[in-house]
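Ligand: magnesium ion. Inputs:
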Amino acid sequence: MSSNENAQTPARRVGKWIARHPRVSGVTTGLGSACAYFGLVPTLLTTGIGVLAAIGVGLTWRAVDAPTFDRFAGRLVRAWWRRWFVYYRKWQVVTSNTGLTTVDKHGTTRAPRIRRVRSSWCWDSVTVRMTPAQEQKDFEQVLGRLANTYRARTASLRTLKPGLVSLDFQRFEPFDDMFIPLASLPESTADVDLSKLVIGKDQYGRDYAIDLVTQLHILFAGTTGSGKGSWMWGLFRALAPMIKEGSVRLWVIDPKGGMEFGAGRAMFHRFAESADDGLELTREYTQVLDARKAELGRQGIRQHTPTPEQPMEILVCDEFAGMTEFADNAISNEFEKLIGQAITQYRAVGGRVMGAVQEPSKDNVPVRGLIPTKIVLRVEEAGHVDMTLGEGARERGAFADQISESLPGVGYVKHEGREPLRVRAAYTSDADIAALVDYCTTPEATVTTLPTTWATDDTSDEDDVIEDADDGDVMLDLADLEHIEVYDGEDEDEVA
Ligand SMILES: Nc1ncnc2c1ncn2[C@@H]1O[C@H](COP(=O)(O)OP(=O)(O)OP(=O)(O)O)[C@@H](O)[C@H]1O
Ligand SMILES: [Mg+2]
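Predicted complex:
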């Protein structure tokens, strides 16, 4: 710290700080004027009552509807609170303890500066201006220590601009304790709401549903094992009575040799397990829908309603790359043309396209930009998030590249709010798939015959008990430990 700064009195420093923050200086000026006009006591009394009333309204709002409260007010309040009372409060000590301060040739010690804090339901993003002598690597090396200090599950780093980085801390994981049951099956086709096909839960614990009426075509991006399969099986399950009746038909391409969907071939209208057959299937799909388009056009019908005579036709492609990048040129060229046609021309006649891809690049999914609904599960690279959800999605909180491998089925979707929604699909086990296929293909089967996988209580207390380690022959003399100061922590989060 320079000698000039040392000479400042605390009051001058506070004054300078207020002057640097226009919003704070606006409030203090306003309060000062009110005090001069109405007097100190009435101003403080009115301000106090106002603040208490605002807290009361906020708490009630949060209790009644946490998601909207969070969207409009909660995230701002939390960002403010965490900026000043969590990140700022410990910042100088943290930067000094983790070696993030630099000393210039005059001996002045400088710490990087916190510029902004954003807070979403699960993550905080702290924008930091690095000191001139620092580089990104300095922060990368101490990410674990920063996460530990701020009690975060994980920390990661993004470069925003030269000299400006964002430290992203995951505060909590909503799906650690949230069990997601398979939604119960609609009893009949009348109970299937195509605009609300429930397949999982969102970060707030609300049902998460896909809307096949307005969301139309869907792309699932996620690395191998990220749980794309459970999303697609979940959708089939939500549509089961209509599949059984024949008012929804599934045209399924599984270019990985039927690994994902082979078990369901009996309930699919068409099934292909190689790129050649997949192309043939897509040709037939477009022919059927072209014919329907012409037919409905002749009848002057502009909006299609699925019936067994004219079903909703869903084209499913489990791995786009198997039909594009990894297929022969002749196949991929024709497939790209046909799939583009399927996406752009058959909305009004009941055509839908649903596809999965491990790496959402343009080479793998050339029609990416035409697909309106995208869901990004765990991906290998940060860049895959914006490739899927669009520019800036990761910056707004879709940290799909940071989803733990232990959380398959978790992903992010775009949402009407600013922040992408973290969601998890229910898990459809092999037994659930077998029962679903049986239900859809056996005329006399009813939904009551369909079992669902519920939580097996394998997280019993016994699993959580860590047995006392047998220390064997390691003997410690207490005297040896006297000089070590034991950190007793500030377990504020453990205080009930
Ligand atoms: N929603 C879920 N909840 C819990 N576990 C799940 C969920 N979805 C998938 N899993 C687990 O993760 C494993 C991998 O899932 P899945 O096969 O769906 O991945 P994938 O993304 O389709 O991978 P690939 O691209 O290799 O086909 C499953 O075998 C299952 O054990
Ligand atoms: Mg799969």
